[in-house]
Please model this.
Amino acid sequence: MKLFTTILKRNIFFSKNNLFLIILSIFLSGEILLAQQNESTFAWPEGKQIAISLSFDDARASQVDAGTALLDQYGVKGTFYVVPNSVKQRLEGWKKAVASGHEIGNHSFNHPCTGNFPWSRQKAIENYTLKQMRNELILANKDIKELLGVEAEVFAYPCGQTYIGRGENTESYVPVVSKLFLSGRGWLDEGPNAPQFCDLAQLTGMEMDGKDFDQILPFIENARKSGAWLVLAGHEMGTSGNQTTRLSMLKKLIEYSQDPKNGIWIAPVGTIAKYIKSQNE
Model:
C-alpha cells in the first residue's frame, strides 16, 4: 500500500489496465512474502532449527547387540520398528532397550512386501486385502505388547510400500495406518518432512545404511534450509556389511547433533510427531 501511495503522489499516469496490474502485483507480492514467512516460522523446541530422528527396522540382532549401547552412551533415544518374531530372538536385549527409553514401533507381523522379491513371494502384498493387512498390524501390536509391555504408536511400511492388491484392485493402506498409529514412515525417500505440511501417516524416511557422515551431512544441511524434520532409516547397526548403518557414522552424527551451535533436536519419531501434531492443531 505504501508503494501504491507513492506512485499516486508522483502523479504518474497509468491506464486502468496498468493500474490494475500494479495493484495485483503488490497484492501477490504480499501474499508470497506472507507464505514465505509462514514456511519459516515453525517453532521447534528451545529455538532449534531442525529435528532429526534415528530409526531402524526389523528388530535385527545387531541393534540390541551393539547399536543401542552406542545410543545410550550419548543419551540418544532411537525408534525401532520391530517384527515380533525377530524380537523373540533377542528378547532380553529388547526389554533392556525399552527400559533405556528407546521407542518401539510396529513393522507388521510378517513383513509383507511385493512378490517381485522372491523371499516375499509367499507373503506378497499383491495378494493382501485391506482387512488382512489391518488384522496383521493389530496382531503385531498385540505381540509387541505381550513381549515388551509397550503400545506401538508408530509404524514403518515394510519395504516402504504402501499399497495392497494389483491392477484395478490396488488400494493404499495408508488410511489403515492412519487410524491405528500416530505415524507411518516410508523408505528410500528423497527429502525430509516439512513440519507444517507433512502427512504423519506418510513420513519420508531417508536411508542412512552404508553411508559415512560426510554423506549424511548434506541431508542435514538441506533440512536446515527449511527447518524440516529429517527421519533417517537403517537396518543393521555395525561396522560394515549389507544394509548396515555404521556405528562410526552414528557417533559423528550424534556428536554433531548435540553441539548446541548446530541447532538440532534429536528425538524419537513418536516424540517429534506428537510435537508437530500439537503445534499444527
Q: What stands out?
A: The domain at 49-280 is CATH 3.20.20.370 (TIM Barrel). The longest helix spans residues 16-39. The chain has two domains: 2-39, 49-280. The first strand starts at residue 50 and ends at 57.
